[in-house]
Design a protein that fits this description.
372 residues; alpha/beta; 7-stranded mixed sheet; 19 strands; globular; binds beta-D-glucopyranose; binds zinc ion
Length: 372
């Protein structure tokens, strides 16, 4: 079968002919890949900055944002059945008995660092025709989400962040009037940094959680981003026209920041303008650039005197995938056009290399590996 593989030692990226996998345990399912989304991590792997092949192998099949259709299941499978649309999770547990997180199925919190990740770290990914996976790592998606379901994985980043945010903000045990069912973010202001797929999906998740949402981003060449932000009832503030300070003045106190840019300079500038009891969530993974100047005294003072929390969040648990599938359904109902316009390009598998190595613009570009 065809697969897109990176050879880190040789610094090569090509289509390879990889042996088609077959089921090896009664609880596994064989899945035909339909859509695979391409993100910054994939581009870093494709340019040899990141990514590790499985032990003893020369190449890594890349791709971790998946949508597939179950072709066959083993006799022990209880959750998935033939014909189901499924999204596979990315991270697999480490093998160390002392890792409490992995032993509890929470490898997103792995202590040892010996976890593996499909398409990223020591396990083949999804940019290929067929995949075999244990059913416990598969999440069923309703058919009517077929065209946007590949957005589930990037949305899990927001879901895991929100789960942690609610836990942290339990420290503020008051609601604000009127107490209605507008969601736990009701009467609070969230700021999203960046209008890429992670930022836009994060903005939608914050919006349905009840927040008043502002997205601060460069407009780039892709004008549709601010249309999407408008359509979901959030406010777009262009970074080329407003400095961080002007933006902060414009919107007033910020309760939550969802960082989805991966640029530390912008992030720390925003941390300096956070309000009382604010929470700042990091989700981006910056490359190493030259050190920047940060006024650490201001930040430390404010963190103490204003009860601020800064946390980072990586990967996702099964619950976050289920939450993402549910919320994607809500997005579809509320903003069908805006949601669909997050996916700006679909390319056949033969064009995946080009997609990974050039800048096609747009928001989320997807490899349509096959159609049902
Ligand atoms: C993926 C995560 C992964 C992280 C680090 C991200 O692009 O979405 O699943 O944990 O990269 O490898
Ligand atoms: Zn990703």
């Amino acid at each position: 079968m065809k697969a897109v593989a990176v050879f880190p030692a040789k610094r090569e990226l090509h289509l390879v002919d990889h042996p088609e996998p077959s089921r090896e345990s009664p609880t596994q399912a064989k899945v035909r890949m339909l859509d695979v989304g391409i993100c910054g991590t994939d581009k870093e792997i494709a340019s040899f900055q990141y990514g590790t092949p499985p032990e003893g192998e020369e190449y890594l099949i890349i791709g971790h944002e998946s949508l597939g259709e179950v072709l066959e299941v083993g006799p022990g499978a209880q959750k998935v059945k033939e014909g189901d649309l499924v999204i596979a999770t990315v991270r697999r547990p480490c093998a160390r008995p002392e890792c409490q997180a992995c032993r509890q199925g929470r490898q997103d919190f792995c202590y040892t660092g010996d976890f593996t990740e499909r398409g990223i770290k020591q396990r083949h990914g999804y940019l290929t025709e067929f995949v075999v996976e244990e059913e416990q790592y598969l999440n069923i998606v309703p058919r009517d989400l077929r065209d946007v379901a590949v957005l589930v994985e990037p949305l899990t980043i927001a879901e895991k962040s929100l789960t942690q945010l609610w836990q942290i903000q339990q420290r503020l045990p008051w609601g604000c009037a009127p107490a209605d069912d507008n969601g736990p973010g009701h009467c609070h202001h969230a700021l999203v940094l960046g209008a890429g797929p992670v930022g836009l999906l994060g903005a939608m998740a914050l919006k349905i959680a009840g927040f008043d949402v502002t997205v601060y981003s460069r407009t780039h060449s892709h004008a549709d981003k601010d249309d999407i932000v408008d359509a979901i009832g959030a406010r777009f503030i262009p970074a080329e026209k407003y400095s961080v300070e002007q933006m902060a003045k414009e919107i007033g106190p910020i309760d939550v920041v969802y960082e989805a840019v991966g640029a530390s300079s912008l992030a720390f500038e925003v941390i300096e303008v956070l309000g009382p009891n604010a929470v700042f969530i990091f989700t981006g993974v910056p490359g190493r650039k030259a050190p920047i100047k940060v006024d650490t005294d201001v930040i430390m003072r404010d963190m103490v005197l204003k009860n601020q929390v800064v946390f980072g969040s990586v990967n996702a648990a099964p619950k976050n995938f289920q939450d993402a599938i549910r919320d994607l359904g809500t997005f579809r109902q509320r903003w069908p056009t805006a949601l669909s316009s997050v996916i700006t390009g679909r390319f056949p598998l033969d064009q995946a290399i080009d997609l990974l190595t050039s800048d096609k613009g747009g928001i989320k570009n997807v490899v349509a590996v096959s159609s049902e």
